[in-house]
Amino acid sequence: MIYLASQSPRRCELLAQIQVNFQQLSVDVDETPFLNEAPVDYVSRLALMKAQVGFRQSQAHYPVLGADTSVICDGVIFGKPQDAEDAKRMLSQLAGKTHQVMTGVALVSANSEQVLVNQNRVTFRPLSVLEIERYVATGEPLDKAGSYAVQGLASVFITQIVGSYSGIMGLPLYETALLLAQAQVPVWTTSL
Ligand SMILES: Cc1cn([C@H]2C[C@H](O)[C@@H](COP(=O)(O)OP(=O)(O)OP(=O)(O)O)O2)c(=O)[nH]c1=O
Q: 15 with 180: CB under 8 angstroms?
């Protein structure tokens, strides 16, 4: 059994997909990037912080998993949009270009703290102003890093992915399984 320090329904769905026995834990951390913080450092710091705060909160009974996803476009970190206007601005930046998606995943237990970063490249076809407006009006972008969901309506905008679908969606399952194996937490492959 582990705790997942996350409010994200996508992370729950992905962790359940590999048959991990877990309970959700609610943690609150300041997600403001440091000045000039490199994206890889930012997502690993946030993932670790979520897991550490969760571990303290849970009174150290079980290992705690935390994750953080950011979209990086032209060197700028895009988190979740502030509002619909912010989502439109991000989507018009992503249109017709390739950007990066990074997810940090961390596991904290009594005797160890491990973090891995999963990195991907995603290419969007060009988008019209109307498409961006219609997409934002669906509400899908509002709680997603970079203002889109690979697993949702935005799938029709994506021409190419280089990397891991689960990592883009918010929890890279290859890296997660590695961390869980190190901590002797069972996933579906453990009994093979
Ligand atoms: C790029 C992308 C992100 N996302 C989501 C995953 C995350 O929920 C969210 C990124 O924001 P995060 O700040 O990483 O996570 P969160 O605030 O939703 O959840 P928590 O901190 O409680 O774990 O964006 C998708 O669902 N699909 C995508 O294609």
A: no
User: Is 28 a known active-site residue?
Assistant: no
Give the residue, out of 70, 80, 156, 168, with the most ligand 1 atoms within 8 A of its beta carbon, to mutate for a pocket test.
Answer: 80
pTM recorded for the entire structure? 0.97
Does residue 58 have its Cβ closer than 6 Å to ligand 1? no
Residue 154's domain spans which residues? 2-182
Q: How many structural domains are present in the chain? A: 1
The reply to whether ligand 1 has any atom less than 6 angstroms from the CB of 170 is: yes
User: Locate tokens 């972008």: which residue?
Assistant: 141
The set of residues, in sequence order, having a beta carbon less than 8 Å from that of 128 and lying 6+ positions away, is none
Closest C-alpha among 149, 145, 171, 143 to residue 66:
171
pLDDT of the chain along its 192 residues, tens only?
999 999 999 999 999 999 999 999 999 999 999 999 999 999 999 999 999 999 999 987 899 999 999 999 999 999 999 999 999 999 999 999 999 999 999 999 999 999 999 999 999 999 999 999 999 999 999 999 999 999 999 999 999 999 999 999 999 999 999 999 999 999 999 877
Domain assignment present for residue 188? The answer is no
The reply to whether ligand 1 has any atom less than 6 angstroms from the CB of 71 is yes
Nearest CA to ligand 1 atom 18: 8
- List the catalytic residue out of 28, 30, 41, 68: 68
